[in-house]
Write a structure and sequence with these properties.
431 residues, alpha/beta, nine-stranded mixed β-sheet
Length: 431
C-alpha cells in the first residue's frame, strides 16, 4: 500500500476569512502565501499543487503567476506590515501566518520548524512576535489556538481527525463482466473507472475516499500528482491511484477500495495471478466478491469463489449484481440467493453476507441527484427503472441478508441494494 497522506488531504476551503476582504487584499494575500511556500519548499511540485488549489478557493481565479518569491520577500512583508492597526488587519496577519504553517505542514510535517525560523528571522520585525509564537505553539500542540479564526482551526482539525482514523482496505474481486467497475463507481458516486465490455482492469489500483467533496487527487505514473475537478480524468491509463470524496454512507470513512483485474481474462493470464496474489496476501480488512447474477454461478465464478474462501482470512461480502435484468415470470431472485447460500455453506461459509444489487442503476440515481449530465439512453433507462422499482419484485434491498442504516435517500436508491452494501462496509469499521 502506498502512503496516502498526500492523496487524502483536503485542498480547498470555502469559508476562509480572507474571502470577506476586498479583491485587492485577496490578491496581495495569495501573492504573499505563494512567495512564502515557493521559497520554503524550494518550489516543490507537490507544494505547488497544494498552494494553487488552496489559493484558488480563496480568490477563485488563476494564481499560478504568484508562484515565485522576490529577493526581499516584498509580497510577504506587504501583508504582514499592513499599516492599519485594527482588528481586520490583525486577522489578515494571523490568517497569513496560519496558512504559511498549514500549507508547509501539508507539504511536509518537518517544514514547520524551518518555517518558524524563517518567519522569525526574516519577517519577525514586521508583526508582533507574540502572534508568530502563539500560532507556532498551536501547530506544535502547546496551545489551543485561541486567537486563530475558528474556520481555519476546524479545517485543520477535521483533516487531522479524518486521516488519523485507521485506514480500512476493501479488496474488490470479480470475474469479467460482473460489473465490478460499475459497482466501484456506484459506491463512489462518480465515474472514475472505465466501463465497457472491451475494457478490463489490468493492474491493482487504489481508490481512496477523502473527507471533502472537492476535486480528485490522482497519482500518475512516475509518482506524479494531478489535482482535477474533472473526475473522469481518473479513467486514463496513466492514473495509478486516485482519491475522491465518496458520495455515500462511507463519505466520512478513511477507506480504500482496492480494484483488481478480472481473474478470467484470457488476453493476459497475469491479470488473474495479480488478483490471486492479492487475495492470498490478506493485506486488506474486507473482501467484496462481485458476481453477475444473470450468469448464475458460472464455472469461472465457482473457481474463484472456492479460491477466495480457501485463502481469504477476512470478512467477505458477496455482491450479486445486475439483478435489475431479472424478469418476474422467468427468474426467482429468492431462489438465486438460496442457491448461493447452499453453495457457500458447502464451501464452509455458513452465514454469508449477501447483497443483491443493481450497481448501474445506483450509479445513475446518484449522478442524477448530483445534477451530472446523463445520456439520452441513460435517462430512458433510469425512467424505466423507476417504474420497475414500484413493483415489489424489484425491491432488491429486501433480498439482502442485512438491513440498511437509516439514511436520507430516495426510495429508488434504497431499492437498488447499494445502501445495504454501504452499510455492511460501514459497520465493519476497525474503529
Amino acid at each position: 500500500m502506498i502512503e496516502d497522506r498526500f492523496l487524502t488531504q483536503t485542498y480547498t476551503i470555502s469559508n476562509h476569512p480572507i474571502r470577506e476582504y476586498d479583491e485587492l487584499i485577496q490578491c496581495k494575500y495569495v501573492k504573499a502565501l505563494g512567495e512564502f511556500l515557493c521559497y520554503i519548499t524550494h518550489a516543490d511540485k507537490n507544494a505547488k499543487i497544494i498552494y494553487e488549489h488552496w489559493a484558488n478557493s480563496i480568490i477563485n481565479t488563476d494564481v499560478l503567476s504568484n508562484w515565485m518569491f522576490t529577493p526581499d520577500f516584498t509580497h510577504l512583508k506587504e501583508v504582514l506590515c499592513y499599516d492599519k492597526n485594527d482588528n481586520r488587519s490583525n486577522i489578515l496577519r494571523t490568517c497569513l501566518v496560519f496558512d504559511c504553517f498549514y500549507l508547509s505542514e501539508k507539504t511536509n510535517r518537518w517544514l514547520l520548524e524551518k518555517s518558524h525560523i524563517f518567519l522569525l528571522r526574516k519577517i519577525g520585525g514586521h508583526f508582533t512576535e507574540g502572534v508568530l509564537e502563539h500560532i507556532y505553539g498551536y501547530f506544535e500542540g502547546a496551545n489551543n489556538g485561541s486567537n486563530i479564526p475558528a474556520e481555519l482551526i476546524k479545517h485543520r482539525m477535521d483533516d487531522i481527525e479524518f486521516r488519523s482514523k485507521p485506514l480500512k482496505k476493501v479488496l474488490v474481486v470479480a470475474t469479467m463482466s460482473a460489473g465490478k467497475s460499475t459497482l466501484i463507481n456506484a459506491l463512489i458516486g462518480n465515474r472514475i473507472n472505465k466501463v465497457a465490455s472491451t475494457v478490463c482492469t489490468n493492474k491493482i489500483r487504489l481508490v481512496y475516499n477523502k473527507l471533502s467533496n472537492e476535486g480528485a487527487m490522482l497519482e500518475c505514473a512516475g509518482s506524479r500528482y494531478v489535482y482535477t475537478e474533472n473526475h473522469k480524468i481518473a479513467q486514463h491509463d496513466s492514473v495509478e491511484n486516485a482519491c475522491v470524496h465518496f458520495q455515500s454512507i462511507l463519505g466520512n470513512e478513511h477507506l480504500c477500495l482496492i480494484d483488481t483485474p478480472g481473474v478470467n481474462f484470457n488476453g493476459d493470464h497475469s491479470h488473474g495471478e495479480m488478483t490471486r496474489n492479492a487475495i492470498k496476501a490478506n493485506d486488506y480488512d474486507l473482501l467484496l466478491f462481485v458476481s453477475n447474477a444473470t450468469q448464475f454461478l458460472t464455472d469461472d465464478d465457482a473457481n474463484i469463489l472456492e479460491f477466495v474462501i480457501r485463502n481469504c482470512k477476512k470478512k467477505i461480502i458477496f455482491c450479486l449484481n445486475q439483478c435489475d435484468r431479472f424478469k418476474p415470470k422467468d427468474d426467482s431472485i429468492n431462489e438465486m440467493v438460496e442457491v448461493w447460500k447452499h453453495k457457500l455453506s458447502a464451501l464452509g461459509n455458513k452465514s454469508p453476507n449477501i447483497v443483491v444489487i443493481s450497481a448501474y442503476c445506483a450509479l445513475l440515481l446518484k449522478e442524477n441527484e448530483n445534477k451530472a449530465a446523463l445520456t439520452e439512453d441513460e435517462e430512458l433507462y433510469l425512467e424505466l427503472m423507476k417504474v420497475k422499482f414500484e413493483r415489489e419484485y424489484y425491491h432488491l434491498d429486501k433480498y439482502c441478508t442485512n438491513s440498511m442504516l437509516e439514511v436520507n435517500a430516495s426510495t429508488e436508491l434504497k431499492h437498488t441494494g447499494i445502501l445495504n452494501l454501504e452499510t455492511l462496509i460501514y459497520e465493519d469499521r476497525k474503529y
